[in-house]
Amino acid sequence: MTSDRTRELLGAYGADPARWPGDETSVAAESGELETARAEAQRVDGLLSLYSVEPASGALRTAILALPERAADVRDVARTARARPSRGFAGGFLVALRGALPQLTGLAIASVLGFMVGVADLLPAHDRNVSVDASGLVLGEDALGGFDS
Amino acid sequence: MNARMLDDHRASDDGAGPSETDLAAGDDTLMALAGRGDERAYAQLVDRHLDRSLAFAQRVLGSRPEAEDVLQEAFLRVWKKAPTWTNDGARFSTWFYRVVLNLCIDRKRKPAHAELPEDFEFADDGPIADEQLEESQASELVEKALTALPERQREAVVLCYYQGLSNKEAADILDVRVKALESLLVRARKNLLVLLNGVRGEVLGETR
Cα–Cα distance between B110 and B102 in angstroms, integer? Predict the structure, then answer.
């Protein structure tokens, strides 16, 4: 083994030959010129050894052991969703209709009110007082009391 | 797959606990058993690899909570992969480290990490700390220095030094040649020496 290679090994793997590649651990040059490189490698080894990491917590282990069960739950939900019979076009239309029910109800009420106001306008003049009274009944004048008109 | 071990395992299902064969089973055998829905085999894989892979992820990410998230995702992949697991010349541990590493890389890409180039070397511009350091502080400081390294340099050090993998296995995981791995290691260790220049004497009990 050349000094250059020993220096490379010290620089890459550190001062402990046990950490060197298996086929290169047998010869560790003792040349004095490598002492600086060896001392430097020892310092880095020492620094790296200071960084300790706690083992996994019980909670993490439990969560990881539960993963297959959770994966099965997710699979079951997906399978159930796939197994649900298709509604077809008519079924889909009904579902869409049910979703839009509040908006359709509002539209119907507005249409009825508009129709009544329209009819009131078409009545002869002598009947208009009646229609005004009627719109007042429909809208509820009391209900307007709270607003500035 | 070792058929005898599977038979042994099926026999052990009648008993209360795992058999000696189970405990001695290799990772490939455990993967095959897990692939048949055997959660005990999966649990053995977890026990065998959890601590080391968690330490690996934490050192790569510099964050314990993120490392724990990564490990949950990684072991979920183990469970999902088990039914189709085949040993294509690569050891389970090599495949698993690669999964963990890729998840770490994905996670690091999400926030705006300003990564330094692989060939980056720090200038030795003086100590970063002068005070006497407690052991936990020293650990934290080394963690910060590792985190400050360019990504590939950090991964090389973690795989070779902390995980104790062979240069060939580490190179496979990083998908580089052994020479390139050694180059990464040399630069990483030089950078660490510079980054930790101010503390190494006190921490290591050296006279400066």
Answer: 13
